[in-house]
């Protein structure tokens, strides 16, 4: 007869959200069982955020060497050891991995089951020959790369974000299907490290982002030699390792065959609902993931779903936010609601592109009357010293000067997005952004300058000028 475990909480999935939930709950002395069928740390540590940013860091150093003559420093063309670059990526993962390890979590008092989880009924999960019957479930099983139904793709060697970091030689010609953040980041990284790169998108690359901000990123990648074909549909693929053919059809009706050495599929991610036997637990789901309310509860009142599998935006920081919320709900019985329209996101190209809250187009679609304030990087003194003057900030301002959205593209825009996220998340106004003291010279001043421009029209108002003229009479 199978052993039955009866913890307070059973967490399914040891990615970012699941680990945060387990660690926080165990810290309060709550019995927790954590089930993970794959690698501890999930996608973010092993295949996503960590390796991609490590690869981008190596590519940044290569680009810096090429740009050094602009600053009076000559170093020549960088010599790139691609195998050493990948060892750097692996070393970064290995350095972080102990924080997410089985040993660490068992040390925290968590019972870790390295097995696949499947619901037996609404109250019970089977994993590794054991049954787990907790008071509450937290399903944090994440997502996997989406492989689209392109003719020939299943039979043709191709890469995803789960396999591309295993390459030991630089692709001669990397063809990428998908112009979202993953596709754009990998395109620039591999181009800077020596590969020829062609990126294909069926619509508009970075199409979710503000068009003016996205254009800055696309212009930079094209200037670095990345071929970007938009409104280009992939009809079929064929070939063998080292020689891939991609047949495309463009919006104007023309066709072409693109030959490359490697193919990367980066068209999105699919929630890991298969194999969980959610039907047995009475948990509703669809192709987007498990159906949850703003309180993250599923149709089974004993179960919550967080992170990628919960059907919303697929970000590590959102999974962490979800984890904090469900811990409050389960441990302290506090009501929770996931925030809307305040979630930041960043595409970590160079220059990076950050967005938080609503774009101008999204504000208009929601019937929000908004004013858009912009300020260029070229008007920032620190940007001039760094010779990084490409880019701009956009503030979307609603009634009474309240910030409802902000987007920024340019040097260090990923870090500046933190300030914008705080401002919008706390419901601040352009006046608040105008009045905060920014050390000089810093790139964050760009937000302050944009906010200040909101008040420029007041300087031309007759009433204001008459008031100043009146006050001048008093000396």
UniProtKB/TrEMBL annotation:
Keyword Nucleotide-binding: yes
UniProt xrefs under PROSITE patterns: PYRIDINE_REDOX_1
Record: residues binding NAD(+): 178-185, 268
GO MF annotation terms: flavin adenine dinucleotide binding; NAD(P)H dehydrogenase (quinone) activity; oxidoreductase activity, acting on a sulfur group of donors, NAD(P) as acceptor
Keyword Ribonucleoprotein in record: no
Domain FAD/NAD(P)-binding, residue spans: 8-320
Occurrences of domain Pyridine nucleotide-disulphide oxidoreductase dimerisation (ranges): 344-450
Protein name: FAD-dependent oxidoreductase
Signal peptide boundaries: none
Cofactor(s) needed for function: FAD
Organism: Aurantimonas aggregata
Pfam families recorded: Pyr_redox_2, Pyr_redox_dim
Family named by the database record: Belongs to the class-I pyridine nucleotide-disulfide oxidoreductase family.
Residues binding FAD, per UniProt: 53, 308
Note describing how the cofactor binds: Binds 1 FAD per subunit.
Matches recorded under SUPFAM superfamilies: FAD/NAD(P)-binding domain, FAD/NAD-linked reductases, dimerisation (C-terminal) domain
Keywords (A to Z) from UniProt: Disulfide bond, FAD, Flavoprotein, NAD, NADP, Nucleotide-binding, Oxidoreductase, Redox-active center
S-S pairs: 44-49
């Amino acid at each position: 007869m199978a052993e039955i475990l009866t913890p307070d909480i059973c967490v399914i999935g040891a990615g970012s959200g699941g680990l945060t939930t387990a660690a926080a709950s165990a810290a309060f002395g709550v019995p927790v069982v954590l089930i993970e069928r794959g690698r501890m740390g999930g996608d973010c540590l092993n295949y996503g955020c960590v390796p991609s940013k490590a690869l981008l860091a190596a590519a940044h150093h290569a680009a810096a060497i090429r740009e050094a003559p602009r600053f009076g420093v000559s170093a020549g063309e960088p010599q790139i050891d691609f195998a050493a670059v990948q060892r750097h990526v692996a070393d970064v993962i290995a350095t972080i991995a102990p924080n997410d390890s089985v040993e660490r979590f068992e040390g925290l008092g968590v019972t870790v089951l390295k097995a696949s989880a499947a619901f037996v009924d609404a109250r019970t999960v089977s994993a590794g020959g054991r049954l787990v019957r907790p008071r509450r479930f937290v399903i944090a099983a994440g997502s996997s790369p989406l492989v689209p139904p392109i003719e020939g793709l299943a039979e043709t060697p191709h890469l995803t974000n789960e396999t591309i970091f295993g390459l030991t030689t630089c692709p001669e010609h990397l063809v990428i299907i998908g112009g979202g953040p993953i596709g754009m980041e990998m395109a620039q990284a591999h181009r800077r490290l020596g590969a020829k790169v062609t990126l294909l998108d069926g619509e508009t690359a970075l199409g979710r982002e503000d068009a003016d901000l996205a254009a800055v990123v696309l212009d930079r990648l094209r200037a670095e030699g990345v071929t970007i074909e938009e409104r280009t549909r992939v009809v079929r693929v064929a070939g063998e390792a080292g020689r891939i053919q991609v047949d495309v059809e463009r919006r104007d009706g023309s066709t072409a065959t693109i030959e490359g050495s490697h193919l990367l599929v980066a068209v999105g991610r699919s929630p890991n609902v298969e194999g969980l036997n959610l039907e047995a637990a009475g948990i509703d789901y669809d192709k987007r993931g498990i159906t949850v309310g703003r309180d993250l509860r599923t149709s089974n009142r004993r179960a919550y779903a967080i992170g990628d599998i919960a059907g919303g935006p697929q970000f590590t920081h959102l999974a962490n936010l979800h984890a904090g919320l469900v811990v409050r709900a389960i441990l302290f019985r506090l009501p929770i609601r996931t925030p809307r329209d305040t979630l930041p996101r960043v595409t970590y190209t160079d220059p990076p592109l950050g967005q938080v809250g609503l774009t101008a187009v999204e504000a208009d679609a929601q019937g929000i009357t908004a004013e858009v304030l912009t300020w260029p990087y070229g008007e920032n003194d620190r940007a001039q010293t760094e010779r990084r003057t490409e880019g701009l900030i956009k503030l979307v301002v609603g009634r009474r000067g309240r910030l409802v959205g902000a987007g920024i593209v340019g040097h260090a825009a990923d870090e500046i997005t933190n300030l914008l996220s705080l401002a919008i998340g706390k419901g601040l106004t352009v006046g608040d952004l105008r009045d905060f003291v920014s050390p000089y010279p810093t790139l964050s001043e760009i937000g302050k300058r944009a906010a200040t421009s909101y008040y420029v029209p007041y300087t031309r108002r007759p009433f204001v000028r008459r008031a100043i003229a009146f006050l001048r009479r008093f000396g």
